Amino acid sequence: xxxxPTVVSLxxxxxxxxxxxxxxxxxxxxxxxxxxxxxxxxxxQVWVLEDGNxxxxxxxxxxxxEAMATAYAQTIRSLCPSGPLCVGGYSLGGLLAYLAAQxxxxxxxxxxxxxxxEAPDPNVEVVKRGLxxxxxxxxxxxxxxxxxxxxxxxxxxxxxxxxxxxxEVENRLATILPTKPRSYLRGVHIxxxxxxxxxxxxxxxxxxxxxxxxxxxDQGDKFEVVGDRxxxxxxxxxxxxxxxxxxxxxxxxxxMMKRLAQEIHDDAPTARRSRSxx
Length: 278
Fold this sequence. Notes:
Blueprint: E1 6-11, E2 19-23, H1 37-40, E3 46-50, H2 65-79, E4 85-90, H3 92-106, E5 111-117, E6 125-128, H4 131-144, H5 149-176, H6 186-199, E7 211-216, E8 223-226, E9 241-244, H7 254-267, H8 269-277
Parallel strand pairs: 2-3, 2-4, 4-5, 5-7, 7-9
Antiparallel strand pairs: 1-3, 6-8
Helix pairs in contact: 2-3
């Protein structure tokens, strides 16, 4: 089935600044970027790409990340044929932006910057930590929070058991019940879809252009990366990683999204050139 993303204008800005294109996260919706409008409005043209069919049953099973990124690159070219432009996204949107930026550069578009916000690297091996490592991380967290070790351990065991039971029940129900677009089980279908896409992901090719990478400080204590740090081998031009307080979902707080928008705007090459020439 043909992939046709919907493009929505998030903010209007002067024609001299590079347009920014932000790609949807794992549910196909780009509403997570709405808090950024307040920061970008009047300063930079920002478009968001959504895909309402992304999580639809029996629609995306034939698609790959590469096919999606190619369609998104074509959509971006239709609005901004040659650039300059920036392309990015949060979580899955960052991975799709990475692939779309490669397509755009290959076609001759001027991609000023790639923006990766807590984006997963599909080629990095992530494994469950051993019991010793998880206990050590747990004790360190309890000391930092000045919490009772016994109480914290009890809460952790209970919440873990409940979470595991819920996970298994949701997965089972999602395989036998029909899913409506906004039903509770839609999130389970999306998770299963994303897992299938990641399992079939092809090795990434290095991205030679300029890039900004944001990662949350709290990566949790349940899993750890084997080998190189995520994105390290794919981004030879990466000079630093910008750390964001909190965890993966905490970035979606409106205040944090506004902070990210401000950092993106202030660090944009066109913004820096405007300030230096003033």
